[in-house]
Amino acid sequence: MQTTKPYLIRAIHEWCSDQGFTPYMAVKVDAFTRVPNEFVKEGEIVLNIGLDATHQLSLGNDEVTFQARFGGRAFPVVVPIERVAAIYARENGEGMAFEVSETRAEDSVDDGAKTAGASRSGAGPGTVSDLKSKSGRPTLTRIK
What is d(CA 54, CA 18) in angstroms, rounded to the nearest whole number? Predict the structure, then answer.
């Protein structure tokens, strides 16, 4: 049975866009997550997945893919759905947090292109931590 997580991610993304908010996605990076390593902090990265910030955005059932500019350079991003920790509106922090699970071994056997440039993190399942508290911006906390 398919998980509801990708459907909820698409719904929150659409809601953010309809409200004029900027959808941000918090990701726990692992070897199968393709993001620019220089922007990964403590095994996590927060990505702007707004339509203005991405090119060829695909919110699929298995992964989120798009191209974006990081430090002025275009970079193809691949995030397995299992690694998405949260999606929320930058402006008010409203959104949804998810349990992060490890990427399934059978899904990781495809091509090695997904792992190129990815960093391995020891971060396993856990709670979504304070995403923006130091800057005074809204925070997102997952409650079990």
Answer: 17
